Amino acid sequence: MSTSLDFFPLVGAVIGALVCLINIGPAAALNPVVRALASVLIPILVTGGFHLDGFMDTSDALNSYGEPGKKLEILKDPHIGAFAVISLVKLLIAAIAFSVLLLTWKDPEPETVVACGLIFVVSRCLSGLTSLFFKKARKSGMLSRETESGRKGTVVLLIIQLTAASAVMLILDLFRGCGMIASFALFTLYYRYKTSKEFGGVTGDTAGYYVSMSETLALCVTAILNIFLP
User: Fold this and answer.
1) Which of 123, 105, 110 is nearest to 188 (CA)?
2) Under the phi-then-psi rule, with left for phi > 0, alpha for psi from -120 to 50, and beta for the rest, what region is 65?
3) 3-52 per-position pLDDT tens digit
4) Residue 71 and residue 92: Cα distance in Å, rounded?
5) Based on the number of CB atoms within 10 Å of its own CB, is 67 exposed (0-12), middle (13-18) or buried (19 or more)?
């Protein structure tokens, strides 16, 4: 995994490019609601719902209100529960609602759209770094085994990609970019606290939860800022 993490943000770049393609240029003539729905669907199609699987497993475990050991068992359970479905529905409704708000309140500038596309890069850079540096819930778990040999080069590459994506965000749209970066920073702190408290550390499933939640939060913050900023 340490090697695959080198290229993890590139998946986000592909997603971001497709989202920009839908919302900039000739495709921008499409109904904004259609573009909002397509923008939410693109990450799912590109990844095959990979991160949403971890999000649903984590949501099930978080809502079990059991001991950390019990919650870790729920994470490994291949079945999904009611809380996973409810959480997924809420996540998708939020993503669609704020995507529609962003695209219909007023037409976002192309620079803002590109900055939003970089959300998918930043989330994967941070997901990789948190997987490498945060305490693991299971010392013998898959995430521990796959990151225990994490190379210094992987860390450096992820930091470079994170720095570059964040810098471009700020250059393209300073105030909305600051909002996006702040949302990632705050959610990363919350993620560390929550996974430590509920699971004793991070897992592969919580990494999917991180990507799904941080991207949606950054979108929500951007849409709200777009109402008040010129």
Assistant:
1) 123
2) left
3) 577 788 999 999 999 999 999 988 889 999 999 999 999 999 999 998 99
4) 24
5) exposed
Read off the pLDDT of residues 63-108 as tens digits, 9 standing for 90 and up.
887 788 888 888 888 888 899 999 999 999 999 999 999 999 888 8
Cβ atoms of 114 and 167 closer than 8 Å = no
User: For helices 152-172 and 174-199, what crossing angle results, to 10°?
Assistant: 140
Regarding pTM above 0.90, the answer is yes
State the CB neighbour count (10 A cutoff) for residue 126. 21
Q: Residue 86 carries which side chain, given as an amino acid letter?
A: I
- Domain spans of the chain? 4-228
CB 208 within 8 A of CB 78: no
Beta bridge partners of 136: 202
Of residues 11, 35, 219, 28, the one with CA closest to residue 128: 11
Helix, coil or strand: residue 136: strand
What does the alpha-carbon distance between residue 52 and residue 4 come to, in Å, rounded to a whole number? 19
